[in-house]
Design goal:
Length: 390
């Protein structure tokens, strides 16, 4: 087994001016409904409206309609959406890497997240396309075969399920809620902060009765954006919680997305340090999809939210930097990601299924090939057939 490695350390080599960043722009979207059935379009788009405080996030836990995400869905929904866009526009969505936002978050935060590991599957899917080039002699068109290479990356589903089980089995200190309960708090906060329509089309009764709604995390709105870090062109898909007002009619205009988070109240320096570390993931998730605002609901140890704080995504790295604790540095994250993706593109240079792996408490990212041919089910049959025709 040929194996290549990329050492994150020393991270000092990534210090300095930022690599070029292409501002994320939504090119299409898809939705899952309350039964987690896939639909093209924005049917599950939600709108932010502040919840009433104090808010008890424990309410309704016994009626929680929880998504079962143990099955391996690969990149199917993302590829189906890209395929629909290509059919609509007649243009291929070209990128160096196509993946979920979650995978890019793990990469972007890796320089300052030594504790956690990850495992991803990847494949280089190449389809040769015919392009017309004009001959300098008599303007005669010349047809040329041009290879179009894209690396598709997904999470290793077996690893994901193993990690979730380990987390679930963790023993919590006496008096602390379970991992499942704390996960529920986040979904409850979303439920009491969202509307199905813009606020001016929503009745007062609907706004004030959100506390009584059953929590269901099957429904999702997923944005698909085109972006870039350094020399790497990216298409990323990821869930977005809500829009602040409305999606603009013009695609050129930015969308005022909102990400919703909960966090424990900050009582001392130790709590502040933990919060700053959480801000790394908050920032990375929103930065990658172009979400400009994060609403944090600060809760006490019993799961009661007492206050809200609005954070501008772009200001978070400086906020952390000015605290002078050296918790993390956004510039280093971006420069590392730029360098790593360049290395990855040159490393995954043949067909087959590849593994991208970082062990817990390790600074080494390993890349090796598991299968010599095929795509390991990363590429859906329908997408493969479609791309072979275009």
């Amino acid at each position: 087994m040929n194996q290549s490695t990329f050492d994150i350390q020393p991270i000092g080599r990534f210090y300095g001016s930022n690599a070029t960043i292409r501002r994320p722009k939504e090119i299409t979207c898809f939705s899952y409904d309350d039964q987690h059935i896939f639909h093209l379009g924005d049917s599950s788009l939600r709108y932010y409206y502040p919840p009433r405080l104090p808010a008890d996030l424990n309410c309704g836990y016994d009626t929680f309609q929880k998504l079962d995400d143990s099955a391996d869905e690969h990149l199917d929904a993302l590829l189906e959406t890209i395929m629909a866009l290509e059919k609509e526009t007649g243009k291929k969505c070209e990128a160096d890497i196509i993946t979920w936002r979650g995978m890019m978050t793990k990469i972007l935060t890796a320089p300052f997240d030594n504790l956690n590991g990850f495992e991803m599957n990847a494949t280089r899917f190449q389809v040769s396309s015919i392009q017309g080039l004009f001959s300098p002699f008599r303007g005669i068109p010349k047809l040329t075969i041009v290879p179009q290479d894209t690396i598709f990356i997904e999470e290793n589903n077996l690893y994901k399920n193993q990690q979730k089980q380990l987390q679930k089995n963790q023993r919590m200190p006496p008096g602390m809620p379970s991992q499942d309960m704390m996960a529920y708090w986040g979904y409850k906060f979303e439920t009491i902060s969202l509307l199905n329509q813009p606020w001016d089309a929503t009745t007062r009764e609907e706004i004030e009765s959100r506390d009584e709604l059953a929590v269901n995390n099957n429904a999702q709105y997923c944005s698909v954006v085109r972006t870039g870090i350094g020399k790497t062109r990216l298409i990323i898909g990821g869930e977005v919680d809500a829009v602040w007002d409305c999606k603009p009619a013009r695609k050129e205009d930015g969308i005022h997305w909102v990400e919703l988070k909960t966090s424990a109240e900050i009582r001392n320096d130790r709590d502040m340090l933990k919060y700053e570390r959480k801000l790394l993931k908050f920032w990375a998730q929103s930065f990658l999809l172009g979400v400009p605002k994060i609403i944090v609901g600060f809760r006490d140890q019993r799961g009661i939210v007492h206050r809200l704080e609005e954070l501008e995504t772009a200001s978070i790295p400086n906020k952390v930097k000015n605290a002078s604790r050296g918790t993390w540095d956004g510039n280093i994250c971006i420069n590392f990601t730029s360098a790593f993706l360049e290395w990855l593109k040159s490393t995954i240079n043949e067909e087959g299924m590849w593994r991208i792996r970082k062990l817990e408490k390790s600074s080494i990212i390993e890349v090796f090939r598991l299968e010599e041919s095929g795509t390991g089910d990363i590429i859906s049959p329908s997408f493969s057939t479609w791309r072979s025709k275009t």
